Amino acid sequence: MDIALLSVSLNVYSTSRIAEEFEKAGHYVEHIDHTKCSVQLGGEKPQIFYEADNITDEFDAVVPRIGTTVTRHGAAIVKQFEMNNIFSTAKSLGIIRARNKVSTLQMMFKKGIPVPKTVFSINPNNVEHQIELLGGAPVIIKLQEGTQGKGVILAESKKSAKSVIDTLYNMSTSILLQEYIEEANGEDLRIVVVDNKIVASMKRTSGLDDFRSNVHRGAETQKVQLTPREKFIAINATKHLGLGVAGVDLIRSKNGPLLIEVNASPGLKGIEAATGVNVAKTIVQFVEKNAKRGR
């Protein structure tokens, strides 16, 4: 098959690993920088261009690896491939929903999936009340569209929380506040789901000088056994968002597992190293199972 790997760069471990496994399986892979794609509407059929080249009918499947800064344009390109009946490993709407933490948590809560106590607002006049809604400090302050632990702040006192929140509100920055789960002790779970099946899971433990447990921030990782409840949450969160491939982040609290967020373009380096699972190969097999060799 001919595969389009939608990414701004191949010089990223996860993207290059996926390309490597497609080539090993005998498929043709082309890197398509979605920021250089255009869509022409009108006429008999919408056309998709990569720079000046018409790629409307060039591929049997697309694998989106959409970055945070170009989410909406990238999702729009994926949507056009979908409307042209090209298989995608992630639905365009799922990409948009997963990118925004508030949208994800709203949907998860509606579907009965447990999440931490969360407050989002744009009102700078009742910050103290917002903090009290979470039981007081410490609280976690997050940018609504941050990734890899960027834009995540632990405010250990009401004074520091109020200072940070006031500043972000005055900068018109979209944030959310969450309760601090002390018993998690700087640990969370990353679970990779492909084709509604859990293919790998690891525990991430933050370093001594950072409460964030992201691999990009130097967290330690190890393979982990999941409980039936954790498996249920991960699979159903992915289904609800419409993602064929996803990284689901959970935290273990005294009240059971809580969903933190879902990533539509999960990194592979940390989890492949921690578990020994060839996650990239499972993505290839997912595409082989579902894409049509239509050309």
Tell me about this structure.
With 295 residues, this protein is an alpha+beta fold. Helices cover 33% and strands 27% of the residues. The protein has nine helices and 16 strands. The strands form four sheets. The chain has a five-stranded antiparallel β-sheet, sandwiched between helices. Strands 2-1-6-7 form a four-stranded parallel β-sheet, sandwiched between helices. Helix 1 packs across helix 9 (279-290) and helix 2 (71-83) runs antiparallel to helix 3 (92-99).
What are the defining features of this structure?
single chain; 295 residues; alpha+beta; Rossmann fold; D-amino Acid Aminotransferase, Chain A, domain 1; Dna Ligase, domain 1; 3 domains; five-stranded antiparallel sheet; four-stranded parallel sheet; globular; Rp_bS6_RimK/Lys_biosynth_LsyX
Rg calculated over all Cα atoms: 20 Å
Oligomeric composition of the shown chains: single chain
- Low-confidence segments, ≥5 residues, pLDDT <50? none
Average pLDDT reading: 90
Note the total helix count. 9
**Order of strands in the sheet with most strands:** 14-13-12-15-16
Biggest β-sheet description: 5 strands, antiparallel
Q: What is the rounded distance between the termini?
A: 9 Å
CATH topology of the largest domain: D-amino Acid Aminotransferase, Chain A, domain 1
Q: Look at the helices and sheets and give the structural class.
A: alpha+beta
Question: Which CATH-level-2 architecture of the largest domain?
Answer: 2-Layer Sandwich
CATH superfamily of the largest domain: ATP-grasp fold, B domain
